[in-house]
Amino acid sequence: MPTVRWLAHGTSWETTVELGTDLRAASKLVEAPEGDACGGVCACSTCHVYVTKGRELLSPAEEEEEDILDKAFDVRANSRLGCQAKVMKDGLVEVEVTRESLDAFYNEHPQAIDPRKKKH
Ligand code: FES
CB–CB of 18/7 below 8 Å? Predict the structure, then answer.
């Protein structure tokens, strides 16, 4: 089975997934902090991640995804929307959660502690 690993603020989360699982759905299995303000319908870009390993294991980006990524912050060559990128081959997919996505996640989950915020 493929493995997906998320990296954010010095922490990592990892899980195995069934083929065909999208990164957003996979993040929920381990409560990795990936935002999803639109609920995964390709309308917000808050699930924006950088794929640091295993890009070739993912489904190719469709035009709809590219259109939404055009509106995202700090888009790079390895940017994907977690709700659109599905794991299609066995192996390791590693993603770095973008600041945009972290901000959205902690806004959506006020009970979760954002380690980026210093305690006073
Ligand atoms: S969750 Fe909104 S575009 Fe992916």
Answer: no
**What integer best gives the mean pLDDT of the chain?**
96
Q: Mind listing the domains of the chain with CATH numbers? A: 3-108 (3.10.20.30)
State the amino acid at position 10 in one-letter form: G
Neighbour tally for 10: CB within 10 Å: 7
DSSP 5: E
Q: Is 99 exposed, middle or buried (0-12, 13-18, 19+ CB in 10 A)?
A: middle
What six digits make up the tokens of 25?
Answer: 């759905």
Query: Average of pLDDT values for 108-120?
Result: 84
Specify burial of residue 101 (Cβ count, 10 A radius: 0-12, 13-18, 19+). buried
Q: What predicted TM-score, i.e. pTM, was given to this entire model?
A: 0.95
Distance 69 CA to ligand 1 centre (A): 10
Q: Given ligand 1 and candidates 28, 79, 81, which is best to mutate, with the most ligand atoms within 8 Å of its CB?
A: 81
pLDDT score, position 118: 67
